[in-house]
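Here is one chain, start to finish.
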Amino acid sequence: MSIILHIHTIVLSKPLFSENFTWFLIFTLVFVLAGLLIYFHWVNKKFRNENRNLSDKLSERTYQVMLQKWELERKNLAISQQNQDILDGMRYARNIQFAVLPKEEKISRSFSDHFVLYKPKDIVSGDFYFYEDTGPYVYLAAADCTGHGVAGAFMAMVGSSLLHQITGQQRAAETCEILDKLNEGIIDALRQKDTDSHGGMDIALIRYDKTKSELCFSGANRPLVLIRNYNLETYPGSKLSLGGFNQNEQKKFDETIIPIKKDDRIYLFTVGFADQFGGPAGKKIMTKNFKEILYSIHENPMNEQKATLEGYYENWKGRLDQIDDILVIGIKF
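Its structure:
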């Protein structure tokens, strides 16, 4: 029996992934990676550009802010310098104004027991007091000019100069005559007939006759207070102001003759003290209350009266601002 051997040839099939497909995958992967690399590079470049643009914008904005800051500082410095120049000028004007005001020693030659309470609201004042000794007569005035500060101080200089001029030319002039001439002088000095200027002043003016011991008083909207034998009497003066031209108005000022007795006290004052706000209710002192204060202290020496008035005023004002210039003159005969 013969044995027949069958030889089967086993043929292996090709791999699942061909060599071509493998290379396809490799190229695809490389392409994707390259694309991602290019994309990330593009995104990164775009981000850097946007960052640079933002930085440039911020830098430009910061630069503009710095320029504005420097310009503001420059203007503030200029304004500060201008303010300093103005303050220096006002302080210089104050020195001139104080130099023009009569010295206390001069007033003491005629009125040994007296006081002058003078308290400007600003560096310079629209209130002023006047004194002139012409021999037999002594002139004394307390004046309140329109406004305060620089405008008021200018009027005060005009008024003081005119008073010296008038009393120097007419050394025995009556007080009503002086106010008439002072009114005309203010109108002429400020050219009020040709302009809209309405500046002027209120004033209480006395002329004391040393030989007769007699007081001549005229007022333009300012009174004189006399305390004698525990009685307080007010002489109101004329209800007219000085200056402010009105062609339909004829201003003529009255005068009052007051015989003076020993221990008489007289007071001249502007509105600043009585008009000050303060106290528990934040109200004005008022003229009536101011007169009551004068009456309550009139027996004290004049220097003590001044100190009492100063203390009362400061306590009343408290933390509030001073609203006006203050001038009070007291004389004991």
